[in-house]
Amino acid sequence: MQEEYLHYLWRMKRLRFNRLKLANGSKSEIQIKDPGWYNFDAGPDFFNGTVVIDGLQWSGNIEMHIKSSDWYSHQHHLDEAYNNVILHVVFEHDKEVLVKGKPLPTIELKSQIDSSHYENYRNIISNQYDISCGYENLSDSFALTQQIDLSFLHRVERKGLILYEEVMNQKRDKNAIFYAAVFKGVGGRTNALPMEELVKIIPYSIIMKEKWDTIRVEAIVFGCAGMLNQEIDEEYYIRLQQTWRLLKNKYKLQEMQLKSWKNSGMRPYSFPEFILAQLSAFLLQFDASILEKETASHILNKMFTLDVKWMSDYWKTHFVFGKISKPRKLKFSKLFINNIIINGVVPYLVVLKHLTGDFSYIDKIIEIMDKVSPEKNTVMRKWENIGVFPKNAIESQGLLELYNEFCIFKKCLSCKVGASILEK
User: Are 371 and 126 in contact (CB under 8 A)?
Assistant: First the structure.
């Protein structure tokens, strides 16, 4: 037996509430007027429930365990947050629980469980699939569509609130926060941490002062990243070095260790040098204020038509410094643009929603993400392997959140898909 399953039965009212009796005390019948609302955080499992015992109505919290003795093994008797629990719901009542010296009213569910229903649940969570419901045909699942939409909104709100807290705690200019989000967003999983370190040592105000000259912005970005201390005999690189030495002394800038950056196992368009070259060009031409003023269509048009004239021709034949590659047409990579939109633009629009109280920013997010192509990564391949193919970034972001927050932890009963399969 698992506690999550008991939670599901209770909150879905999948028990014969009219036949429940106390396992202790008078063993009289108990009336469940309100099972309470499910608590996903620390504390009792259900808040603000209402029960009637021997004609007396009680309101308070409800706690659930496999065994009643778990109350003590989980040390709830030492936590004041559990002093207002009015009902203990357990699979097996093996020990009397005392709260403030009095027996805690307890319901035992052992005889109330539908064995076939529980066996169905066990079959769902114990199969060999990374995604437990992978044996089902989910391509036309209405429950999956609902869960994807919910998971998408939860994901963008969660990421936006992280950015919002930075705005409120650090009292930084909101445009500076947007650029910080962009830095962290384009690093990918491999270079996310060095990108976070980099944005902390490049003051946004300095970038704004030096936007009049492309080479100066590039020198600041590459120099602070620790990439301009090599002996490379190329005109562009030497010019960057000379400009960096000047600006480093002028602004007392710090620089990272070159070894912080990782290239191994990555495709050339994801190399940090090329990412930073694109990022420099982005900083030179993008005005974050359009995210407030313009429509979703205008924002997307701006993102998808970023001008490569702000990038040096050097990057037509290089992905890293000092190593010539096959000549190609210079362009912003699709991965780079998608990462800025998903990890920079969208969280920033959530920040604007909280700062202004204008919920139309959510509509703008949905309209933008509907036009952005889905990501290609390991998690998406897991979904595709079971026949689920995201059509846009709304669906891929929703599926990513669903996998990370539910599938990995086998929280099938908290997912609309798992619940629908179980009840079917």
Answer: no
- The model's pLDDT over 150-199, given as tens digits with 9 standing for 90+, comes to 999 999 999 999 888 877 776 667 778 888 888 888 888 888 899 989 98
- DSSP-assigned letters across all residues of 173-211: -HHHHHHHHHHHHHTTTTTHHHHHHHHHHS-HHHHHHTT
- Bridge partners of 22, per DSSP, are 107
| Residue 186: count of CB within 10 angstroms of its CB | 26
More confident residue, 396 or 166: 396
**What does the alpha-carbon distance between residue 176 and residue 181 come to, in Å, rounded to a whole number?**
9
**Side chain identity at residue 263, one-letter code:** N
Strands 46-53, 37-38: pairing kind: antiparallel
Q: Which amino acid is at 271?
A: F
pTM over 0.85: no
* CA geometry: angle 152, 153, 157, nearest 5 deg: 120
**Tokens 């990782």 label which residue?**
262
- Using a pLDDT cut of 70, give the percent of the chain over it: 98
Among the listed residues 83, 114, 104, 103, the one whose alpha carbon sits nearest the alpha carbon of residue 9? 114
Complete DSSP assignment for 295-342 = -HHHHHHHHHT--GGGS-GGGGSEEETTEE---------HHHHHHHII
Contacts of 293 (CB under 8 A, 6+ apart): none
Q: Region 272-294: what's the mean pLDDT?
A: 91
CA 3 to chain centre: 25
Q: Could you report how far apart the first and last alpha carbons of the chain are, in Å?
A: 21
